[in-house]
User: Fold this.
Amino acid sequence: METITDTSILDQIPFSIFIKDLKSIYLYSNLVNARYSEHTPEEITGKTDFDLFPEAAAEKYRKDDSVVVESGKSSDRIEFIEHNNEEIILRIIKSPFRNEKGEIIGVMGVYWEITEELRDKAALSDNRSQLRLALKAGEIGVWNWDFKQKKLFWDEQVNKIFGIPGIYQGERSYFIDFIHPEEREIVSERLMISDMSETEINTDFRIIRPDGSVRYVQTRGEVHGDRNNNPEKVIGVIHDITQKRLTRETLHSIVELNQSVDRLSMEEIQRQLLKEAVRLTDSRIGFLYFVHEDNSLSLKNYLISGEEDNTAPENHRSSAATGILDTCIREQHPIIHNSCDSEECFAGIPGKTIPMNRELTVPIIKDSAVKALIRVGNKPGIYEISDVDQLSLLGENTWNIIIRKQMVHSLEVAHEEALKSNKIKDRFFSIIAHDLTNPISNIRILSDHFTTLISEPSPDIDTLRELSLILGKSVITAQELLKNLLTWSRAQRNALEYQPETLSAEIPLDMAIEECKPIAEGKNITISSSRDPGISVYADSNMLQTILRNLLVNAIKFSSVGGEIILKLTEENNSVHYSIEDFGTGMNEETVSSLFRIDERKSTAGTNSEKGTGLGLILCKEFIDSHDGKIEVESQPGKGSRFTVILPGIPAA
Assistant:
């Protein structure tokens, strides 16, 4: 331990003086210092602050010593202490204590009382306490820039805002280095005071803390001049407005999103939510998950810096949430990882895995359940509570927008369905009132006429034969219409159960041909068919027979007397194809486009003035949809039509 031998000069100085070694052991204390510590110089020498002062004060003095030793620079601070049952104010200057070689071997401290100097107003004591409390409560730091000494001083609250320990007194450039590079030049210019033309400083800017996090601050300063009215110093305050600024930005994003909700799709709203989440937290990657009742996840969108935003493939769903995501769902609490070194800190997206050096996951909670997760990562600085607050605010309000959008969409769909249902109902009653009434009325009229002729003494056999043929056609028409009406009615009430099975593809085709033979023979129409052998189909036999029968009846209706209809059964690309081709009247594009819509379908008479409703084709389309199949129509006016039914092949076992 070093010793101090010549202390005679130091003992005569009217300030408190002490010297400590690198272990904070007192090497020397003059009489004035001893008085303040209520010990003799001999009692102080060889002791540490922990032997002389309360632990909290001693720890603070030790940290102050460390700052001076490590920086190699002096510190200058104001301290309030209690002495003789009164609070007094000390100014304390600590400097590195060096040996002959210039090596730092300890700390030398000088302090003196400045209570009277500062109490130039009677109420200073009360005002000081109130000011300190107000500054602390408002998280406002105080700084002082002395032009003559070219020194900048700020208090502990400024250091807290800047994310560094202790207090600071030093060069202005140290402060400038904290300013965000994008704003450093313009803020430096605003802080340059050359004359008294400007008496106030007022500016907002960003700073970058040592840990890389970005904060928004607001500083206000007042310029003080000397007797010659030259700038002497600036006394100011600085306030962390990060929360206020980010909240304002978040609310602005929510307002913009809310105003554009009507023109954005659900997917666009989700993408906008993710973009804002990444922007507000200064992240480089973002994910939006929807949470299902079984805690499985659907990745809806993801965004990677430098790339286009991406919508995940439909049903990109994991079996269950795991790791960080599972914890976030179970605990319904945000999770921050600023030092990721585990397998949990990887994000899986379609086709690759992305490492994350830090991440933040925030749940969106509604009705006591987690509905979605916003996950962001790879921020240059650390994630903080302010990031959590912004994402929570953004997520909750955007989710409300999504719910509102869903409700509006549901109402629109319900409205469209109601309109469609009304059109279907009107069409249905029209069929019953007109299309079914006509053939039944014809049957009654023909029956009465037939009875009258039979009653005559010498009935005209040719007339009776003609009436019999007409009566037969009317019966067939009514029968076909009733079949379709009953089948369609059952389908609308979900009373028809879809019961697929594997069967020979020829069976329903042969049954449809057999059922339609009498109608074809009535117009002398030839039905020919070609079939690939051994084809099986996975289908509901009754539905498939109804499909083929209705298409064949339709082909007969629009074929000329003596015409031909060609049926083909083939297998292509693991699909079964039924083709029904006629060479009759054909259709234009407008008619083709409305074939399978009951609300737009218009009945067209056949080549023999056969009546129809179009209901048979509607049934065909609904039954084909039940099989996950499709129907293709090719037609030209005057040349005929070809309807092709394509059904999926037999599913794998």
